[in-house]
Structure formats: C-alpha cells, structure tokens
C-alpha cells in the first residue's frame, strides 16, 4: 500500500487541536528526532503558507498549503512543490472531526512512499501531539509573555516551540518589554523568574542515558510548570523518576506526570521500531 491514512482521537476540543497546528512551533514539535531534517521555515499560514525543511545534500522540502482546501477548523492540506515533487508526489490532508468530548485527527498522505515507511512517523506525531495537548491543558490556561535567554541549542528550540504552540508569546532576553516571566536556560541549572517574584532553579538532568537522565520533552514540561505553578519555588531536580538514583522528589510531591519514566520507555517512543 502506498501512502497512508492514520487516525487517532485527541483528548481536546476540535478548535483547540486545530489552533495548535496553526501556531508557530507546530512543525518543530511534530518532527521525529530520527529523521535527518531541519525546520528551515514554518508556514506563516495553514491557508496558503509554505513550510521548508532542510534535507541532506542541500535539498529542500517545500510544502505549500492549499488555499482551496482550507476549511478551518475541519481541514487543511499541504502539497510538495519544487524539484522534489517531480519524482515524489506528496499531498497531505489533515482532517479534524469532533468525537465525543475529543477530536479525531486523520492524516491522509497520497504519495508513492509505502505505508510501512510512513507509519512510524505518524505514530510519533500523534503521540507527541496528544502529550503536548495534555501538558497545555494543565499548564497553559492563560497566555503568557516569556523572555528566554541562553544558547541556541536543542533545548531552546524545543522549549520555545512548546511555549508557542500552547499560545504563549516568546521574546528574546534582554528586552524592554514587560514580561510575565524570564527563563535563563543553562546546561546545569536553569533559572525561572516570574514577575510576581517567584524563583525556581531547575537542576537539569542529563539528556544522555545515565543515572541523572531526563528526556528533552520532560525537561521542557518542567520549565513550563515552573512558569505557572505558584506552589513551586527554590531548587528542583529535573530527572526521570525511573533512574533509581536521584529522585525528583519535589515534582513527584506535586503529582507531576512524566512522559517517560526511564530511558527504555523513551527509546521505544522515538525509534521507528514498528515492523511493516
């Protein structure tokens, strides 16, 4: 079978799920870590914008959104354009329908790529979206303006995308604008300071397997929690609870939900291990 139809139900209202896709950072959040691609440009609009991915060898994947197929909040469509489209047709339809209190998201891709090649990518995308929506339901009820300082690295890219897809506004530090909080990203201890005077110091675990390991997405979730949880202050250990050495006691006391309790669970999520 060529192409794929992939469908699952998200525990969020239709408008919430659609709007998530329309915000900056959506393509970053949905890109599987095993794929050798880089988000060069996100689409400025789901109606007629163009997203560009950088591929090995200097190639560019240009996905143009189709204005004639744009029906918010039920559907949007993107189609591959440019030189690659001459050898690989690609039309991706994103359809959203209400199902109970949730939303069924159906991805239909018409292409020459076999479904077993595409399935791991959509397994990842749907799980990632469901987890992000759950996090935002808990921590993104009010939109914040957040200044972010620190190096331009994978942590900053992932955290910024998590914030913006949740409806928050991110600006670079330093700034003269009034902000709700400032996050000073660091490899060791990340500092979160809110406008109300609350300070959280997040002692970062390692993103590599080991006794202080934590998944990148879990680290970003903890930063987001630190922004909004007024019962959290002082020093917090950001490590996965399944490591068995250092425990995130203060987070567990707040009933914090980790996406990955140990490295084995994380690897099962990010690697395309499903057989055809």
Folded structure, characterized:
The protein has 276 residues and is of the alpha+beta class. The protein is 28% helix and 30% strand. The protein is built from seven helices and 13 strands. The protein has helices spanning 14-22, 26-30, 115-139, 154-165, 216-228, 249-253, 263-270; strands at residues 2-10, 38-41, 50-54, 60-65, 75-81, 90-99, 102-114, 145-149, 169-172, 181-184, 189-194, 199-204, 234-238. A seven-stranded antiparallel beta sheet has the order 1-7-6-5-4-3-2, covered by helices on one side. Strands 9-8-10-11-12-13 form a six-stranded mixed beta sheet. The longest helix is centred in the middle third of the chain and has 25 residues, at 115-139. The model has no long low-confidence stretch (mean pLDDT 95).
Q: How are the SSEs placed, and which strands pair?
A:
Layout (H helix, E strand, L loop, with lengths): L1 E9 L3 H9 L3 H5 L7 E4 L8 E5 L5 E6 L9 E7 L8 E10 L2 E13 H25 L5 E5 L4 H12 L3 E4 L8 E4 L4 E6 L4 E6 L11 H13 L5 E5 L10 H5 L9 H8 L6
Parallel strand pairs: 8-9, 8-10, 12-13
Antiparallel strand pairs: 1-7, 2-3, 3-4, 4-5, 5-6, 6-7, 10-11, 11-12
């Amino acid at each position: 079978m060529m192409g794929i139809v992939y469908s699952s139900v998200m525990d969020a209202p239709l408008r919430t799920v659609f709007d998530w896709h329309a915000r900056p950072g959506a393509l970053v959040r949905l890109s599987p870590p095993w794929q050798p691609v880089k988000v060069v440009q996100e689409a400025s609009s789901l109606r007629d914008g163009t997203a560009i991915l950088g591929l090995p060898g200097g190639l560019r994947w240009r996905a143009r959104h189709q204005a004639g197929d744009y029906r918010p909040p039920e559907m949007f469509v993107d189609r591959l354009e440019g030189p690659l489209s001459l050898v690989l047709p690609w039309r991706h339809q994103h359809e959203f329908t209400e199902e109970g209190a949730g939303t069924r998201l159906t991805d239909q891709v018409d292409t020459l790529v076999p479904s077993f090649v595409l399935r791991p990518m959509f397994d990842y995308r749907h799980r990632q979206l469901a987890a992000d929506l759950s996090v935002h339901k808990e921590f993104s009820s009010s939109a914040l303006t957040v200044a972010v300082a620190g190096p331009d690295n994978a942590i900053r890219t992932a955290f910024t995308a998590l914030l913006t897809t949740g409806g928050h506004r991110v600006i670079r530090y330093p700034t003269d604008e009034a902000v709700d909080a400032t996050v000073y990203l660091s490899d060791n201890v990340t500092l979160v300071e809110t406008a109300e005077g609350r300070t959280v110091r997040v002692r970062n675990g390692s993103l590599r397997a080991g006794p202080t390991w934590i998944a990148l997405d879990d680290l970003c979730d903890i930063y987001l929690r630190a922004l909004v949880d007024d019962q959290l202050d002082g020093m917090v250990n950001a490590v996965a609870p399944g490591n068995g050495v250092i425990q995130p006691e203060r987070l567990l006391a707040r009933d914090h939900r980790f996406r990955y309790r140990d490295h084995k669970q994380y690897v099962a999520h990010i690697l395309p291990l499903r057989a055809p």
